[in-house]
Design a protein that fits this description.
By secondary structure, this protein is an alpha+beta fold. The protein is 57% helix and 15% strand. The termini are far apart.
Length: 185
């Protein structure tokens, strides 16, 4: 009846939550985190390659990330790729290892980052509401075409609302964790 609508809605909303988590990873809390390199590629003998596929990435200290290329000839290419990216950290190298020191964010900067988290949260909540609206519209179309009864439509709308409530709570939880992480120092 409307199981496909519910299934698609859940999948779409889970994708929204996953994308939100990925975007939050890029918001630095002043701690070294290897995931900050996600999406940064460098020229590896003519092929754009993610750093973690051509180097060992470690976090030896809370505020330091080290990158040891498997082939030392790639050290300058990796360093250039990091400089070109928008992570805001200047790498240094000793010929064998690239070091990324993470500076301690100021109180003001942490508050800005929390605002950014809240802004991203609101964007994704709007996305969830739009998905809910689209699903309810689809249910109403099916009722008009005679595929669903009024009772089935009402049941579907209630189920859709329960789903959005669940995913909004999940977004809130993820955002609260990130805010806590940002303000911990």
């Amino acid at each position: 009846m409307y199981d496909d609508i519910i299934k698609n809605l859940k999948k779409s909303m889970q994708n929204t939550v996953n994308e939100f988590k990925e975007r939050l990873i890029k918001i630095r809390a002043g701690r070294a985190n290897a995931s900050i390199l996600t999406g940064i590629t460098f020229d590896y003998y003519g092929v754009e390659t993610p750093i973690n596929q051509a180097a060992t990435v470690n976090v030896p200290e809370p505020r330091l990330l080290t990158i040891k290329p498997w082939d030392r000839n790639n050290i300058s290419s990796i360093e250039k790729a990091i400089l070109k990216s928008d992570i805001g950290i200047t790498p240094s190298n000793d010929g064998e290892v690239i070091r990324l020191p993470f500076p301690q964010p100021t109180e003001e900067r942490r508050k800005e980052l929390v605002k950014e988290v809240k802004s991203l949260l609101e964007e994704d909540k709007v996305s969830l509401r739009n998905q809910r609206r689209d699903s309810i519209d689809e249910v109403k179309k099916r009722e008009k075409s005679g595929d669903l009864s009024e009772d089935q439509r009402i049941g579907a709308e209630e189920e859709i609302q329960k789903i959005i409530d669940k995913f909004q709570k999940e977004l809130d939880l993820v955002a609260k964790e990130k805010e806590k992480e940002l303000m911990e120092f």
